[in-house]
Automatic annotation (TrEMBL):
PROSITE patterns, alphabetized: HTH_LUXR_1 (PS00622), HTH_LUXR_2 (PS50043), RESPONSE_REGULATORY (PS50110)
CDD domains in the cross-refs: LuxR_C_like, REC_NarL-like
Name of the protein in its database record: Response regulator transcription factor
Pfam families: GerE (PF00196), Response_reg (PF00072)
Domain Response regulatory: 1-106
Length: 199
């Protein structure tokens, strides 16, 4: 209901409906006039807002879509651009910013963060992890073995061990399990394959 209350603060907008599952949004678009959708990336029952937004853009390209999330998973931002979303907003931002994003998007503007927000991960900020280290961390959190990670990244297993050891040195966590728990709890990584960010 937080998003609804934010929308209602805008004098230019009226809430047409609220859905708890992203995969119900396409059908709702066919029922009446919708100008803009605030699409949460992670919704009930693992319903993927990115996939739903992509489908809506195919059938209703005139509808503006603002992707919103509290997850700091960098791949979400990349995929939102690829599927044609109009704007992107992190929930940790002030609600007054969301009103500006909504009203500006309706006017044809686009709003995209310059980068994914950083979080403290042990002794370092998340931005201090390299791309290879971040991808290794994502795969670790999905339960992949070193061999599986190496195959996915097209590197040797020794490289995977190096990436993991570097992350442990940087963050100060004593083992990979502690590192994974921290990454997930801080919303830096969304484990599991339910959100296929490579589509």
């Amino acid at each position: 209901m937080y998003l609804c209350s934010s929308v209602e603060k805008s004098g230019e907008c009226e809430v047409a409906g609220v859905l708890t599952r992203a995969d119900a949004a396409l059908a709702r678009c066919s029922e009446g006039h919708i100008d803009l959708i605030l699409m949460d990336i992670c919704t009930e029952n693992d319903s993927d807002g990115l996939t739903a937004a992509e489908e809506i853009k195919k059938f209703y390209p005139r509808i503006k879509i603002v992707m919103v999330t509290s997850m700091l998973e960098g791949r979400f931002l990349d995929r939102a651009r690829r599927i044609g979303a109009d704007s992107f907003w992190y929930k940790d931002s002030p609600s007054s910013d969301l009103i500006d994003v909504i009203e500006g998007t309706l006017q044809g503007k686009q709003f995209w963060p310059d980068s994914v927000p950083t979080v403290q991960l042990g002794n370092v900020l998340s931005c201090n992890l390299s791309d290879q280290e971040m991808e290794t961390l994502r795969l670790l959190c999905e339960g992949k073995t070193n061999a599986e990670i190496a195959a996915s990244l097209h590197v040797a297993e020794s490289s995977v061990r190096t990436y993991i050891n570097r992350m442990l040195e940087k963050t100060g966590y004593p083992n990979r399990n502690r590192l994974m728990v921290a990454a997930v709890s801080k919303r830096l990584v969304v484990p599991g394959n339910q959100f296929d960010t490579k589509k």
